[in-house]
Design goal:
Elements (H helix, E strand, L loop, with lengths): L2 E3 L10 H10 L4 E4 L11 H14 L2 E4 L2 E2 L9 H6 L4 H14 L4 E5 L3 H4 L3 H22 L2 E5 L6 H11 L4 E5 L1 H4 L6 H8 L3 E6 L1 E7 L3 E7 L8 H7 L4 E4 L7 E2 L4 H5 L6 H12 L12 H17 L4
Parallel strand pairs: 1-2, 1-11, 2-3, 4-5, 5-6, 6-7, 7-8, 8-11
Antiparallel strand pairs: 9-10, 10-12
Helix pairs in contact: 1-2, 4-6, 6-7, 7-9
Pfam families: AP_endonuc_2
InterPro entries: IolE/XylAMocC-like, Xyl_isomerase-like_sf, Xyl_isomerase-like_TIM-brl
Protein name: Xylose isomerase-like TIM barrel domain-containing protein
Length: about 325
């Protein structure tokens, strides 16, 4: 069984009933929306109830992310602030309550962007940690966990530090292996570090290729054709939800720039050498058309199906 991100469903558009219908037709057990506001801009209970009833009829679950979560980037939190009458924590608590009412046991969030990492990143992580600590009672009352997504700006080590601060009972990981490449972390090594906390895995794949001057770039490819060893990932976290999310970003990393490397002190030399070696070594597969998501969706579904068919150890 696998879940589908709303944006990875071909021709689904933004209308939630149509999204549910198309996800169910593809055999998904869950469809995950980027935000609860995609379901209802006002979180109207009647509208949400109708959607839940339709999902139940189709035999598919509804999931959603919290979208952004960053108290130092309030320009991204207009709707949460409105929900919370000016208080971000109250607005996020309302989203958690709404998610729980739709049957969600966890909701993942993204902290920032590569540009955010280049700014006051330590202060942002501290503010996110403080917000989540304050939300612990809400999460406990709802029986939920928040999940920090390994987006391209955050390291596995920073995720672990957040979990240590907030508590593993209320904060887990939404593990996105292709984003670890942007941080020059080996996806398997990072998965081993995070494995006890990984509740879901984002399924996609990528290769690395050299690019002038002195960079390597992440290019997206169909699952099973890239760097990610899916058999190893799924073996590490056999109970984690498989969430198909077809990415768009093609990020370049200046891996031969000494100033950049000094600003990434967490990078492990062996992991660095392994990934750079993959980028400058063999030339197969070729870089795929980054806009052809149909082939990538079929491959991702196939990877998830193969994982479910694998006999239990």
């Amino acid at each position: 069984m696998y879940a589908l991100m709303r944006g990875s469903i071909p021709n689904a558009g933004n209308e939630p009933f149509e999204v549910l219908k198309r996800a169910a037709a593809l055999g998904a057990s869950e469809v995950t929306f980027y935000s609860l506001f995609e379901l209802s801009s006002t979180l109207d209970k009647g509208a949400l109830g109708e959607l839940k009833a339709e999902a139940d009829r189709l035999g598919i679950a509804i999931g959603a992310s919290l979208d952004w979560l960053n108290p130092l980037r309030l320009d991204r939190h207009g709707r949460e602030l409105e929900l919370g009458h000016g208080e971000l924590s109250r607005g996020v608590a309302r989203l958690l309550e709404t998610g729980a009412s739709l049957g969600m046991a966890d909701m993942f969030f993204t902290i920032g962007t590569l540009e955010d990492r280049a700014g006051n990143w330590a202060a942002q992580l501290d503010a996110v940690g403080a917000l989540l600590v304050g939300l612990r009672p809400n999460l406990a009352d709802l029986g939920m966990r928040a999940l920090v997504k390994t987006h391209e700006e955050i390291t596995s080590y920073e995720c672990l530090a957040l979990i240590e601060r907030v508590g593993a009972d209320r904060l887990g990981v939404s593990y996105d292996p292709v984003n670890m490449l942007v941080r020059i972390e080996d996806p398997i090594a990072a998965a081993k570090r995070l494995a006890p906390h990984i509740a879901q895995v984002h399924v996609d794949d990528a290769i690395l290729r050299p690019e002038e001057p002195g960079s390597i770039r992440r290019h997206l490819v169909p699952a099973g054709e890239g760097i990610i060893d899916w058999g190893a990932i799924f073996a590490l976290v056999p109970k984690a939800k498989r969430l198909i999310e077809l990415h768009n970003g093609q990020f370049a990393m200046p891996v031969f720039d000494t100033d950049w490397l000094k600003s990434q002190p967490y990078i492990d030399l062996c992991e660095y050498a392994g990934l750079v070696g993959k980028a400058v070594g063999k030339r197969e597969p070729e870089v795929a058309d980054q806009g052809k998501n149909g082939d990538r969706l079929a491959a991702a579904i196939g990877i998830c199906g193969a994982a479910m068919a694998r006999p239990k150890q």
